[in-house]
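Bug #77: duplicate submission created two jobs. Keeping one. Sequence:
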Amino acid sequence: MSQDRLYLQSYISVRNSIQKRNRMMKETTIEDVIKQHEESGYYFKVNGVQSFALDVGSGEPVLCLHGVPTSSFLYRKLAQALAAKGLRGISIDLPGLGLADRPADFDYSFRGLADFCIKATDVLGLEKCHLVVHDIGGPIGFALAAQLRGRILSLTILNTWVDVEAFEKPLPMRPFEKPVLGETELALLTHKTWHLAFSSFGVSSTNGISNPEIEAYIDLLKRDDNGSASLKIMRNFDKSAAFKEMCYQAVQNTPYPVQAIWGAEDPGLTYERYGLEIKKAAGLALVHKLQAKHLLQEEKWDEITDLIVLQAASGQV
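Kept job's structure:
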C-alpha cells in the first residue's frame, strides 16, 4: 500500500472519529449531563437538610469542597481521576447550590456552611480524610480543618483566600452582594451569557468541554429557587478577625501536610495577590502553578490528581 493511501486512510479515520465525537456531544443534553453526575453519587441529610455527594472509588477519602457559583459538578473529572489512582473522590454540594436543598432559614454564612460540612463528614462516615478546597470552599474548608485537625490527612488548596479580613471580591462578584442589583445580575445569567463568563474567567480553553456540560452549571445554580440561595451566600462572607484566626489555624503548624495548586491565569483570584498570600500564610516553599484560570479542575484535573496522590503517599510536597 502506498504512503499516500496510508495517509488518506489515517486522515479519514481521524476525521470520522472527530465527527462521531461531535455528534455525541451535540446529541447529549443538559439533562443527560446532570443525570450522569447524579448517578455518580447519592443523597444524604444533615439535620433534615438534604444534599448530594459525588462519591467515586475506594481507598483513603479525598473530600473536595467547591465554591460559588459551582457545585460538586466541578469535581466530576477530578473524582474519577482520584478513583483511578486508588483514592476515593468525594465532593458534597453546599446547601443553596448544586443538588442540595435551599432552606429559607438556613445559616448561609461561612461558619454555617462549615458546620454543615463537619456534620456531613460524620454522616458520610469519614473518620479521616484528605481535604481539597477551592473558592469559598477555602474559608469554609479552613474552618472545618481547624476544628477537625486530628481527622485531616492532608490539605490541598486551590485558588482561594485565607486572609478573610483583607479579602476583596473580584469585580464580577461584587454586584451579587447588592440588593436588587444582585437579583438583576442573577436573572441575566443565562446559558448564553454564562458561556462568555466561563471562557473569560473560568477556563483558558473550552476544548473537550461540551456545551451541555458548560450550561449544566447554570441549571445546577438556579434550579427551583432561581439561584436566590446563592445570593444569601454572596452576602454572608465572614470578614471578622476571629474567623481569620480560625482560617490561619488550618494552614499553620498543622499535623498534616499542606500544598497549594494555582490556576495561574485566574483573572479574579490572581496568584500575585492571593496565591502569594496562601504561600506566605502556610509557609510554603512553592506553589504549584498551572496554566489554567479559576476553574482549574475543568482543565487540569490530571495534574491536580497527581499532586494530591503524591502528597497522600509521601506526606509532603
